[in-house]
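Handout, page 2. Input:
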Amino acid sequence: MRRRSRQGASAIEFSFSLLVLVPLLLGAAGIGISMLRQLQTVQLARDAGAMFARKVDFTLLGSQQILSRVAGSLGLTVTTGSGGSSNTAGVAGAGNAVVILSAIQYVNAGVCAQATPPLLANTGSCHNFGSWVFAKRLVVGNNTLRTSNLGTPTGLTTAIDSTGTITINDQCLTATDKVTGTNPWTNPWNGSPTYPVDPNSLTVIQVQPIYVSEAAAVGFRMPPFSSGTTVYAQLYF
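Output:
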């Protein structure tokens, strides 16, 4: 009788321990899968940005298919075109991932001079002089999943063309083409005489475009351990 009683007690104790162990195991699995999806999203942004900076044409279906293979299980649905007046590429609601590619240009005297007609290097003539603006924008995948941290070019005089390029005149004159939101190029220098030239100054990089790659994907969902929050990555080239 005592042996049977002990066996019964062990079974009850084990069943109670499962109430703790099973949630712990499920929670650990959920966290692990979520971390994996975050790493996949970072890798997608890195590979897409590296190709974009090297002038890979992502308006071509073949290039988008390569990006879809890189995304793997994230579920990036490929489409074609830059989206024209909608300022995006992709089909609304398609797929579980999106890649947002932007070329950022600092409007200096040289950019103002490229407008038609040429503009003077001041905000009176060249309204966006001294600001960062979008020179190119392409989106592949579900364009409703997430918007860019840098903002979205809107209200353009000329619609974004089939390559995702924004005209020089819009870069110089359209206020809504300016970069908004997260801006990593602000000047943090405190005026210390140790540095005769601020190493973080915009003047160091204003003569070349900056390529920005953003990727987002639907996160792993397993309530209550993981709510499926969108994972996101942003990289600069």
